[in-house]
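As noted in the main text, all predictions were made from sequence alone. Below is one such record, for RAD50-interacting protein 1.
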Amino acid sequence: MRILADRGSEVINYWFQLLLGKQQFGVCCSENGDQRKNVEEKSDLNIAALAGNEQVCEGTDNGDLPSYVSAFIEKEVGNDLKSLKKLDKLIEQMTESKMQLEEQAIISAWVLTVSSEIPKRIQSALKNAEESKQFLYQSLEQETHLSSSINSHLLTAQPWMEDLGAMINQIEEIERHLAYLKWISQIEELSDNIQQYLMTNNVPEAASTLVSMAELDIKLQESSCTHLLGFMRATVKFWHKILKDKLTRQEVYPYFMSRFVDELLTEPKQLPEKYSLPASPSVILPIQIMLTPLQKRFRYHFRGNRQTNVISKPEWYLAQVLMWIGNHTQFLDEKIQPILDKAGSSVNARLEFSRGLMMLVLEKLAADIPCLLYDDNLFCHLVDEVLLFERELHSVHGYPGTFANCMHILSEETCFQRWLTVERKFALQKMDSMLSSEAAWISQYKDITDVDEMKVPDCAETFMTLLLVITDRYKHLPTASRKLQFLELQKDLVDDFRIRLTQVMKEETRASLGFRYCAILNAVNYISTVLADWADNVFFLQLQQAALEVFAENNTLSKLQLGQLASMESSVFDDMINLLERLKHDMLTRQVDHVFREVKDAAKLYKKESVKEACIVLNLNIGSALLLKDVLQSTSGQPPATAALNEVGIYKLAQQDVEILLNLRTNWPNTGK
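Prediction:
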């Protein structure tokens, strides 16, 4: 009972403390009720827990705290001592309520602090807004006033601006007229100077003045004054013609005008763009003068209905051009070139002369090719003659491959595709002829041991010569793409020849050790070996690089294949070489199988015979064989000989047969006898 009484006292004291706290909190709540209401409306803090304490606050506000405690204890405990068991639970509830009230007190204090700060910030913001509004009104008033002043000034100044613009236009017009007159004055002044120089026969100064006039012409190219441009160009052409005629009549070549004057005034005849000729300047004036009579002769003989203009004889005009180049070489090198060098020109007189004549050939080819494009014999003859002409032009006369040449004409799409077709047709015909020849499988060098190590049949050697000739025919084409198309033709021909060899080989399969079968095998091996050698040739390595670029652009090869081509691990002939090597392997396999079968069949006969003793003789060690041979030679027909034979296991073979077998051995040592 005492313990319960003590616990009851603790509860009563705890309640007094708790209710005192509530009273204090309630007072705070009542004193700041209005502020709290405002804060509850503006903030998102949850202080709804205070509502549950309204009754407590109301009771404590009236100052009747002891009565409230007594009533609460009376209600919870009463006179029943058993109810004292609830004290622990009540204490826990009161403790929890106290903690909640403390938290609420902290929150309330923070809310009160914040609520006192917010009005100050709002007032400051409103003040700033008001000041900004006033400043904006002032700016708008100033802008209106300034706009009105500007409009008034523009209206006042408008007549002045119109008058000033008209005056400026007049001044600009006068300046253009003055500039126009200055250009005309300069042209007339230069023209008068040229006339005076010519009157005094001072041709070099006249030519120099003409160069100055041509420079003015170039400066005027961007002008929109078409009449002035026309007057300038007409004046330059007028004096250029007079000087050119004067030099031509006097046959004087020491005076050379600047090259760009010739380029400005001379419009060289250009072939259509489909021929893709490299850009080149016009031929310099002195060489043009030299070429004029030759051009007239060329056009007279090889144009129109002249008897010398025969479409089936391109060699006539090609030989004529080569002869002209050869006949003028010494004169150009010894007479003209020193003058050009002295004048500081970089032009090569001989090449310039050849370039001028080459244009005649190109024009002639471009005109003739369409007429014979579909006559195989005439077209093939034209190509042959053109290639011979090109070879002599480059090798004998040093004509650069970068200049316009006949290969540009043959590279035109229609002509080139026809060339490929004709080349394939005649190559196949030659292949038919070489394979049907009686000497197709016989080596040309069969009687010369040192030369005929590979025992190459005539058809294989002729075929590789054909491929080599085709290479020489297309190797000077101007573009890599055209060369690659010819390379594909060569690979097709190799594959076709391989197929033909395979067909002939199948006919000879039963005689795999026969003469023709072995000749086919030698042919396959020879072609594969030569192609492997060609793969290391500089020309085909360049084609390999060009093919690599084409394949990379078209994505036609895997990264591995592209890497192999780039690293030179493979070549442009690898596909053909692999097929030929496979055919060679198949043929060798057939031969090995045939030999094995023959040996096997021949060995079967020995099963029925003993005669085994011969094998003993042939397989004796060198020392035993030498000893047996000496014994047989020294004791011919004597018992020691028989005993020696029996000792090595020979009982049936006669002594003479044993000696014959011993002599057949090929591994006797060299004893010097």
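The chain has four domains: 127-251, 284-411, 420-593, 600-664. Residues 622 and 668 are 7 Å apart (CA to CA). These features were considered when defining construct boundaries for the mutagenesis experiments described in Section 2.9.
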